[in-house]
Design goal:
mainly alpha, 434 Repressor (Amino-terminal Domain), 2 domains, elongated, Cro/C1-type_HTH
């Protein structure tokens, strides 16, 4: 899903018109949805607060970083029913844990062979699969049960700060 598609879909889901974004005209939002214009970085929080949709957050992150981060799963082979997402998430986490348990952290990078590095890379791809699955799980839960993903993220960040895992 592109950022443009995510904005259009989340705006439609919420019943928000294109002229309801402070700082943007209807024409500007339409141009963003058609891929003719980018969201100004300083305006991203306006879209985040107004739309509060997992697809928009994930795709905005990918856009602003040049492609880093999990994607919102929206392909023809994806079932976003909450129970399907839960089961897929559990499967992906089990696979990632299995890979983590098999890959030693004690081996120095300088002594790994190319085959070791390739195996480690595949292990990291599996871990990324788990991250994508967790993002889908959190996103679907928020959508289905009416939680704000933005509030959830802010609350989690506050928890990290309180534990001194991040610097404020």
């Amino acid at each position: 899903m592109s950022l443009q598609q995510a904005i259009r879909a989340s705006r439609a889901d919420k019943g928000i018109r294109q002229d309801e974004f402070p700082g943007y005209t209807q024409q500007m939002v339409s141009a963003i949805e058609r891929g003719k214009r980018d969201i100004a970085e300083d305006m991203a929080p306006v879209f985040a607060e107004k739309l509060d949709h997992p697809a928009m957050y994930l795709e905005l992150s990918r856009k602003l970083t040049g492609g880093y981060g999990p994607a919102w799963l929206d392909g023809p082979n994806v079932d976003l029913h909450r129970s399907s997402v839960r089961e897929r998430c559990l499967d992906e986490m089990r696979e990632a844990i299995d890979f983590i348990e098999r890959e030693p952290a004690s081996v120095l990078p300088a002594v790994e062979t190319e085959a070791d590095k390739q195996r480690r890379y595949e292990h990291l791809v599996q871990c990324f699969d788990a991250i994508v699955a967790l993002n889908a799980y959190i996103g679907v839960q928020c959508l289905e049960y009416g939680f704000s993903m933005l509030k959830l993220s802010k609350d989690h960040y506050s928890k990290l700060k309180a534990r001194r895992y991040v610097q404020a």
